[in-house]
Amino acid sequence: MATQGTRIRIACAEPLGPGARLLRIERADGAEVGFAGGQYVIINTGVTLPGGKLAKRAYSLLSSDAEQRAVEIAVKRIAAGPGSNMLSDIAVGAELEWSGPWGKLRLPDGFSGRALVVATDTGITAALGIARSAAAAGARQLELLWLVESAAYFLPEPFVRDRLPAAASLTIAGGFLPVGHPERPARACAIAEEQLARGPYDAVLCAGDGAVLYPVRDRLASLGAPEGAVLLESFFNNPLKKST
């Protein structure tokens, strides 16, 4: 069940390459988080933005949902990002607040079919959470496709592969076009179409750049992906938010 204003404590922190950090977090009251793989929390960093609002940032839980009293997130330091910089430097033992868990990007309980998880950029954290979830344990096949600009962009490949269950496969489309490139959506659609040729899949879950993933979702649907089987979580560039 999602909660608001829950106190949390940074239990452990470790670097993940030059621009990323792994944080292990516990609820201050010792209670279980109650999340399913693929969900996220919204952390109140306590940083006040120029307009007076507090910097609240969403982070997917990349740890296994078999462990509910301590969870993990990965933070990418963004040069001009007050929230990411604060969490990149926060001390072990510090306390903050979060709300959640939120989100419906998850496999259904008892899933036993073939699933494809498409992640761009930082969406790999949600993909890891899905792959490590209890719901994924019964999947007949689980394939992850990660579209990422470079090996140094976020999480190191060895870290990602080490966290994946043995039954899950990972394909990395390295050298992917940078965020904002005009040809990025079309390139992603072409890669996803190649992946879909290995199907059919019973579920397709997408996380990351909304400017890429909405066209990918529409393309997969046009190629015969089951209606309602393609789920999407936009980490950034969400076209729905821009239109409201």
Automatic annotation (TrEMBL):
Residues 3-108 form the FAD-binding FR-type domain. Pfam families: FAD_binding_6. One of its GO terms (molecular function) is metal ion binding. Keywords: 2Fe-2S, FAD, Flavoprotein, Iron, Iron-sulfur, Metal-binding, Oxidoreductase. Its cofactor is FAD. SUPFAM superfamilies: Ferredoxin reductase-like, C-terminal NADP-linked domain, Riboflavin synthase domain-like. This is Oxidoreductase FAD-binding family protein. It comes from Sorangium cellulosum.
